[in-house]
Design goal:
Helix content of chain A: 40-55%
Order of helices and strands of chain A: EHEHEHEHEH
Number of helices of chain A: 5
CATH topology of the largest domain in chain B: Heat Shock Protein 90
Number of domains of chain A: 1
Strand content of chain B: 15-25%
Number of strands of chain B: 15
Largest sheet of chain B: 5 strands, antiparallel
Number of strands of chain A: 5
Order of helices and strands of chain B: HEHEHEHEEHHHEEEHHEHHEEHEEHEE
Oligomer: heterodimer
Structural class of chain B: alpha+beta
CATH class of the largest domain in chain B: Alpha Beta
Shape of chain A: globular
Radius of gyration of chain A: 14 Å
Strand order of the largest sheet of chain A: 2-1-3-4-5
CATH class of chain A: Alpha Beta
Chain lengths: ~140, ~475
């Protein structure tokens, strides 16, 4: 029996976390979640997720980015795919999109999705990213 | 005499009586009169400033008489004996002189009137210019300051009159505004020039035009600086507000969509039961969004009515506090909060009842929300002169000092571990501030982190 893929959500919206947990569990994934940045790194180290879904705005406007950066710098989890969610991007136009592109490059995010995102969209993105990383994972 | 209307007086007195009644163009005066001599009559006429031309007729023509008569302002001197033609010649000459004199007088008056008009216009222009909020500077062809209003003088750090006749280049350089000289080229190009510059923390819109005389010759340039700081700030503020608002709507929408999707994807099997907690969560989030919309509408309504003369009501504070406290009674009991009021008797506040209820409702609601269980909330109110001070004091979690200034901003919420379980949309205090300021009051906050906060509202008392 193959081990289920594990997704770890970091988001301060507990309703969102509850819904994603039910949705992805229903689709056969293992789900872990935390509703604050504090303690997230420790949970990631403990759970060793296959993919991380990170909300951009938590305690501070850049909490998500800083956490993403720290994950990437950690040699034990540096290569895990990170999907960043944001509630501010699209409707506010090009400037933010440009900033997001720069930050995406800086953190080496795998994807940047605008809220409200559907579980199906998220599921598709997660599957794509896992597939893209699969050869590297096999080598590792 | 032909073409003339003639009246006669036999004595000096008769002559004066006639001159009192009528206006004569010419007076022919004999040097020797029965009562007074001609020179005395002439002097009286002059002192009355009569417009009548005068001619002295005398048989004793000598140089002394002529000099004396001329000193009295005689217009002509006719020695006896004379022929009728001599007299007619004198009359014609005097008539002509009179006409010329009248024309000269008319011209003088017109000239005076236009000078007066000019002076009036100049003073109107000057008061107009000095009352402008924009800073105005006028220079002549020699690049000297010929006019600067108060706003400009202040900006340049000078007293208005000290600027006059100074070189504009020196004045601008001295005020670190040398860049503005580019708008005032020494010659040639006289198109309207505009630019934007920052002075300290202010942003100015600068504009320069050439002004010309009636003959089209350039006389100098007018430089105006308009302070657009507030306009710019508002322009920057709007997108920020919209961006925050979008986020405030997207987050709950994202949550609601995810909660519903659990059911749509049948994540928890075919029975409805397991989905109910998710749908209830979605329902609560929709309630919060409806509340948010209500608060946004309140804010927008307050802004719209800000300039309108709100009907001023007198609201009894005691009644208002009691009814608001009733609304929170359940929460006060559930959180075991010691609630007390200390209100000076008979306080009436000059504000609409509904507005005071909103203000107190928000402050009391916050005091309870941010109290720990078994905390204490107190409402104090007292009057000093024409001010009523209302304090809502709690012994709750307090506010970080660095966040105090932003507390009344729309959507601002302190994000701390202690606040994460407390619901709110960050609009309550923004609404409070606007309502208080609309009623000509002020609101301030003092807080010690971990020990509690005091919100103090000062509102005008109703006239007794």
């Amino acid at each position: 029996m193959t081990k289920s893929l594990k997704i770890l959500f970091v988001d301060d919206d507990r309703d969102f976390l509850a819904a994603q947990t039910a949705f992805f569990c229903g689709r056969g994934y293992d789900v872990a979640s935390i509703d604050r940045v504090e303690g997230a790194l420790e949970l990631i180290a403990q759970e060793k997720p296959d993919v991380i879904v990170l909300d951009l705005m938590m305690e501070h406007h850049d909490s998500g980015f800083l956490l993403g950066r720290r994950i990437r710098r950690d040699p034990n989890m540096g290569s895990v795919p990170i999907i960043m969610l944001s509630g501010v991007a699209a409707a506010t136009g090009h400037k933010f999109s440009a900033d997001a592109a720069a930050l995406k490059e800086w953190i080496q995010l795998d994807a940047f999705l605008d809220k409200p995102v559907t579980g199906r969209q998220l599921c598709k993105t997660i599957e794509d990213k896992l597939a893209a990383r699969a050869p590297a994972a096999a080598v590792g | 005499m032909e073409g003339y209307v003639v009246e006669m007086a036999a004595t000096g007195r008769e002559a004066l009586a006639l001159l009192d009644q009528k206006c004569f163009d010419i007076a022919l005066i004999d040097y020797q009169l029965p009562d007074v001599d001609g020179l005395t009559l002439l002097s009286t006429m002059r002192s009355r400033k009569l417009p009548t031309m005068t001619c002295m007729i005398t048989a004793y023509a000598n140089i002394d008489t002529a000099i004396a008569a001329t000193r009295q302002g005689i217009d002509f001197f006719l020695p006896k004996p004379f022929s009728p033609d001599d007299l007619l010649g004198v009359m014609e000459t005097l008539s002509r002189h009179k006409r010329l004199k009248e024309e000269a007088e008319k011209l003088r008056r017109e000239n005076e009137a236009s000078l007066l008009a000019l002076a009036t216009e100049k003073s109107q222009t000057s008061s107009l210019v000095s009352s402008l909020r924009d800073a105005v500077l006028v220079i002549n062809r020699e690049r000297e300051v010929v006019l600067a209003n108060h706003a400009m003088a202040e900006l340049l750090g000078h007293v208005q009159k000290d600027l006059l006749r100074k070189s504009v280049d020196a004045v601008l350089a001295e005020a670190s505004l040398a860049g503005l000289a580019d708008l005032l080229p020494a010659s040639g190009d006289d198109h309207r020039k505009i630019s934007e510059l920052t002075v300290g923390d202010k942003i100015f819109f600068a504009s320069a035009v050439t002004f010309r005389g009636e003959d089209g010759v350039a006389l100098g340039r007018i430089l105006t600086l308009a302070d657009v700081t507030e306009m710019r700030r508002m322009a920057m503020e709007k997108p920020r507000f919209i961006r925050t608002m979008v986020h405030e709507f997207r987050s709950p929408l994202g949550a609601i969509r995810s909660l519903i999707e659990v059911a749509l994807d049948k994540s928890l099997g075919g029975e409805i039961g397991p989905y109910l907690p998710f749908l209830e969560r979605a329902d609560r989030r929709i309630d919060k969004m409806v509340e948010l919309i209500g608060d946004l509408l309140s804010l927008s309504r307050i802004d719209l009515e800000r300039t309108a003369t709100a009907s001023v009501e007198n609201t009894d504070l005691q009644t208002c506090v009691a009814s608001i406290a009733d609304l929170y009674r359940e929460k006060i009991v559930a959180q075991q909060i010691a609630f007390e009021t200390a209100l000076a008797p008979g306080l009436a506040v000059r504000i609409a009842d509904e507005d005071l209820r909103t203000i107190l409702g928000n402050l009391l609601g916050n005091a309870i929300k941010y109290s720990r269980d078994a905390g204490a909330v107190k409402v104090n109110a007292s009057r000093k002169d024409s001010d009523i001070t209302i304090e809502v004091v709690d012994a709750g979690i307090g506010i970080k000092p660095e966040n105090l200034a932003r507390l009344f901003e729309e959507f601002f919420r302190e994000k701390r571990p202690e606040t994460r379980d407390i619901e709110g949309n960050g609009l309550g205090l923004a609404i409070v501030k606007r309502l208080v300021e609309r009623a000509c009051g002020r609101v301030e906050v003092a807080s010690v982190l971990g020990q509690g906060s005091t919100f103090r509202v000062v509102l005008p008392a109703s006239p007794v």
